[in-house]
Amino acid sequence: MKPLSEYTRSALELSEKTTEKLRRSTHAALAKTEKIRRPSTGIDKKGTAAGGLVSIGLILGGGVWLFWGKTLWALGTIAVGVISFLSNRSHHKRIK
């Protein structure tokens, strides 16, 4: 029968090999997703423009709600529109 320390050593080696294999596959997956996380400049600009239009639509929609007397809905919609607009403007300046 093998001593207990030899079983421990073989289990530790197996664990280290498995950990190293998992680490390599994780790094490979992260390298493949790099393209997905960073869209091309053209797509980024189009997305920012679309987001700007949506935010302006939210602000205008909030104005309509305010006109109809739905103050709570109006303030919420305007707030979301302003936050979205400011976020899009800061992103637009960053990508220029």
Detail the poorly predicted runs.
none
The helix/strand series, from N terminus to C terminus, equals: HHH
Number of strands: 0
Oligomeric composition of the shown chains? single chain
Tell me the strand percentage band: under 5%
Q: Write down the Rg.
A: 27 Å
Query: Biggest β-sheet, characterized?
Result: none
The averaged pLDDT comes out at: 87
Overall 3D form: elongated
Number of folding domains?
A: 2
Which structural category do the helix and sheet elements fall into? mainly alpha
- Helix coverage percent: over 70%
Number of helices: 3
What separation lies between the terminal Cα atoms?
A: 70 Å
Keywords: Membrane, Transmembrane, Transmembrane helix
Précis, in short:
Helix content is 90%, strand content 0%.
Quick tags:
mainly alpha, 90% helix, elongated, transmembrane helix, transmembrane, membrane
Structure description:
The longest helix has 34 residues, at 4-37. The chain has two domains: 1-38; 39-96. The protein is mainly α and 96 residues long. It is elongated, with a radius of gyration of 27 Å. It has helices at residues 4-37, 41-67, 71-95. α2 (41-67) packs antiparallel against α3 (71-95).
